[in-house]
Each structure stands twice: as C-alpha cells, then as structure tokens.
Design goal:
Length: 79
C-alpha cells in the first residue's frame, strides 16, 4: 500500500511509524493528495491524529485501516 504524505513541521515521527509498518510512502503536493487519497488524517500536538472525513465536496468517509493503525501505534507509544 502506498501512503501519500503532505509534509509539515511534525511529520518526522509519522514517517518513523510508517517505516516500522513497512509502508511505502511518498511525499505529495496537498492538492494531489486530497484528490487521490482513499483516506487521510491530520496530525498535530493538540489533535494527535484525526481522520479527515471530507474535503470540500469530496467524502473520504470513515477512518481507513492505515489511519487506524497509525492511531493505535501512536497512542501506544505516547501513553
């Protein structure tokens, strides 16, 4: 499974989590990412990991397996 990542200040820890899972990840421009992703999430200090369910008129729906696995791994690491 390929994971597209829109870069940001706090992306390094999530790259490590994806590497640990053996996921192939590519950095992509945000417009491309939003229009082609099967699932997406935001990350931040206060928000931790939050699934993106829709962008403009495009529905992404419920969190997918990658989002759930990253959440579980992240929460296990910080708690």
């Amino acid at each position: 499974m390929k994971v597209f990542i829109a870069g940001g200040i706090g992306i390094a820890p999530f790259l490590g989590l994806l590497n640990a899972r053996g996921s192939e990840h590519l950095r992509a421009d945000l417009h491309y990412f939003v229009n082609t992703a099967d699932e997406a999430f935001l990350s931040g200090t206060a928000a931790e990991i939050v699934p993106i369910r829709s962008v403009d008129d495009r529905e992404l729906g419920e969190p997918g397996p990658v989002t759930r696995q990253v959440q579980e791994t992240y929460f296990a690491a910080v708690r």
